[in-house]
Amino acid sequence: MSSVKDTIPRRDYQSELDGIRALALIIVLIYHTGFELFSGGYLGVDVFFVLSGYLITNIVISQFDNKKFDYADFFERRARRIFPALYIVLLVSTIPAWFLLVPPDMVSFVNSQSSAAAFLSNIFFWRESNYFDTSSELKPLLHTWSLGVEFQFYLIYPIYIGLAYRLFPKYIFQTTAFLFLMSLALSHWGAMVKPTPNYYLLPTRAWELLYGALVALWHIKHRDRKDFTISKSKADLITLIGLLLIIIPVFYFTTETLFPSAYALIPTTGTALIIIFSKHASIFYKVLTLKPLTYLGLVSYSAYLWHQPIYAFIRQLEDYLSGLGVWVAAFFATIILASLTYHLIENPFRSRSKISTRSFYSTTATALVGLFGFSIFTNTTNGFENRFHLPENLQAQYELPTSDNGWCFYSIDTNRELPLGAAGTQCSIGKKQGFEYQGLLVGDSTAGHFEPFWDEVGEQINAKISSITTNWCYPSLTDNFTWSKDTPAFDQCLFNRQYVKEHAKDFDFIVLSGLWMQLKSENRLSEVDELLNYLIKDLNKKVIIMAQAPMFDRVSILKSIYMQHNPKIIDKDIDAQEINKNFNLLADNNTNLYFITREELFADNSQDIPKLTREGLPYSLDGIHLSIYGSVKAAETFLGNHRQSNLEKFISEQIIN
After folding, report:
1. What pTM does this model have?
2. Distance in angstroms (rounded) separating the CA atoms of residues 18 and 20
3. Which of 166, 427, 477, 652 has the most beta carbons within 10 angstroms of its beta carbon?
4. 32 contacts 250 by C-beta, under 8 angstroms
5. Torsions phi, psi for 100 (to 5 deg)
């Protein structure tokens, strides 16, 4: 086999590739509007990855072949291509963020901003991803994770090619194929057992870029050889197949599809086929090289950068901006800003004659230092919390009660310094001395958020309550989980459940709480029934079930905290109300089961559940969880109506078998 060096042709501008870019961009832009028909539109990024791998391989191989590769020059060219537009978007996004993002989200935003500036946002979003995280559609810079993957690839890939040229120049294709297969296998495994890092990190995404690299290497060896001929009709047919391999999954893939995994071979193979054969086609080559498409492809990088901030900030204003017309306007605003950025920022910065190397790096360094400085200052001011009014005595109370702020909830997923195991079972609330009863609070974060409630109530009913709670660990004795099992919370959950199984007999009563609505949607309520049977029938224990608190739209609830907006109850809350009603009926027919209703927690002498406390602030922290403040207020409502007397009677009565 002849070496790559001997056969490399000269690379010319391939306008059809910009047509493919345009297709991928349109898919991504429409998908992120929330258009349900495009349920698999996230695969547009995978098309971009293949194209990037293809183009970067052509550049690197060409330079190595001509013995002109210079790593510093290569890095500068990549930096000139990527940095300026990105930094402009990062800086401009700060303006709407200042006015629209409440303090917790502002902190997250600036941290993602500095991570994006350093091309580490894929790692940042992987580490940030957890149950208490902001919805992805509300994160203005979430899309920059893909830039992190690409840039990390750009740093490593030329080193690999350089070593390959020295050590095995005749086998670059084979070794690249081996790396491709290793990364693909890792990706498919990761999609099943470690989906979050699998989605964000380079080792499990590299195969998509390497797919493009393999296409480039194949092209270098075959495309311009005289014995490689194909009729235009066949090329059109294969190109059509390639397009269908991209387009069909857009409509059939969903967020439930294992991705990225071997399933991603479908759109990436489609991209590879278009790259290889569209140049030889007639109809589809003309389509892909239409001026509007190629122009859209040229500005696709800037359009990709702009679309997510625009979309996310529109969603922050959904009380005022909604409807199809808004999203159509957002689409065109993205293209207009992309065009301006391409002509005024991207093109000038690519030219060394217009902007010298020294000027480029000094400007970049200044922007980078400014972004990092802004991030540090934002963190020290808790997201510039003084932008919005919240009484000083309540600021510390608008948090989830966790082990980090003096409570028991063992949030091991968000605080990786917490030790796994017994330390998560040794915290108690309520009456610590001279108590008459011992209780056990069991569940996930929606059990943990009731700790201030049970601390107050426990004092009144002479009970010490041990809290055995951690992330996603709903009441069950199985090894099932409502989140990825690649988190330490899963291992802690298994420990907690074993603790409950072994020690529940030592307590006078057990309190169960969970996100009942989610368990119903995932058909897991039967596990709660099994746990109830174990506790009541097998162990003869008294069991108390907590109602699921009202569910609110997250943006709306945060604005109601900081901006005095009226929170909206989310549509799915009706499911939680139905489940609460079923638990109440179950308790009415079982003397060893007690159900604490929403009315008992939140309604003062009324059957209507208020959205806000008497102070005009929400009980909820984020739409799902009660804040410390909200949990204490629920206890005040419960105790203020002397409902603890019924609870004490239930706990003290003899078990009825």
Report:
1. 0.82
2. 5
3. 427
4. no
5. -110, -30
Residue 260: cis peptide before it, omega within 30 degrees of 0: yes
Rounded Cα–Cα distance for residues 456 and 638 (Å): 10
Distance separating alpha carbons of residues 346 and 88, to the nearest angstrom: 10
Q: Write the pLDDT tens digit of every residue in 597-638.
A: 999 999 876 667 888 888 888 999 888 999 999 999 999 999
Strands 463-469 and 437-443: parallel
Collapsing DSSP to helix, strand or coil, 232 comes out as helix
pLDDT higher for 344 or 323?
344
Amino acid at 71: Y
Q: Which residues pair with 595 in a beta bridge?
A: 545
Question: 229-240: b or e for each residue (b if 16 or more CB lie within 10 Å)?
Answer: eeeeeebbbbbb
**Cα 518-522-528 angle, rounded to 5 deg:** 75
Torsion of CA 7, 275, 303, 555, to 10 degrees: -120
Cα–Cα distance measured from residue 127 to residue 200, given in angstroms and rounded to the nearest whole number: 10
**Which residues is 552 bridged to in the sheet?**
569
- pLDDT tens, residue by residue, 511-555: 999 999 999 989 999 999 999 999 999 999 999 999 999 998 888
